Amino acid sequence: MTRTVYLVGEPAADALLATDPLALLTGMLLDQQVPMETAFAGPKKLLDRLGALDTGRIAAMDPDEFAGICATPPAVHRFPGSMAKRIQAMCQAIVEDYDGDAEAIWTRGEPSGKEVLTRLKALPGFGEQKARIFLALLGKQFGLQAAGWREAAGGYGEQGARYSIADVVDADSLGEVRAYKKAAKAAAKQAKG
Fold it and tell me: Which of 51, 119, 139, 146 is the most exposed place for a label (fewest CB within 10 A)?
């Protein structure tokens, strides 16, 4: 069965995310301070420029060269230099801890949802919230069967939620997630006074 996702809304970029675990992790890493679709389009830009998304190659690249690749218009992120460092640090951790196999983070040793969350939080650039969202994305759209993944993902794991990229399956759900985020930001701003 071929998996389809709607994280970018561009068929080639979404196809890459659906089939390449490193691309999916990289998109999640880039998902900050830019629209979700922009973040998840980043891995396709890297693929087009590098010819392949290879964890070991990215980890070993000269940092200035890799930063230049990330900054080439259209840039991979609005902060290409800092994100280039984060991508490389993540790839280095995957090489060191998982022999370069990004998918091993959630498959090696049949981990529980709690263990997958712990592994994700250990990655450079993945804090608590980003790790929970990615865990929910794996469970909701990528068939993750890890015991307790919904509980480990917290609210992001809720069935029918429209809180994050984990819940985006089409243009309508993207709109619902945007509306939720906008309302949450407004509430947080109002609470600050």
Answer: 51
pTM: 0.95
Position 189 in a domain: no
Residue 72 in any domain: the answer is yes
Residue 68 lies in a domain: yes
Q: Which of these ranges, 62-76, 104-118, 172-186, has the smallest mean pLDDT?
A: 172-186
Rg from Cα positions in the chain: 16
Location of structure tokens 């659906």: 18
Q: What is the mean pLDDT of residues 138-142?
A: 96
What's the 3-state SS for the chain? CCCCCCCCCCHHHHHHHHHCHHHHHHHHHHCCCCCHHHHHHHHHHHHHHHCCCCHHHHHHCCHHHHHHHHHCCCCCCCCHHHHHHHHHHHHHHHHHHHCCCCCHHHHCCCCCHHHHHHHHHCCCCCCHHHHHHHHHHHHHHCCCCCCCHHHHHHHHHCCCCCCCHHHCCCHHHHHHHHHHHHHHHHHHHHHHC
> Percent of the chain scored above 70 by pLDDT?
99
Domain that holds residue 131: 11-159
Query: pLDDT at position 2, please?
Result: 62
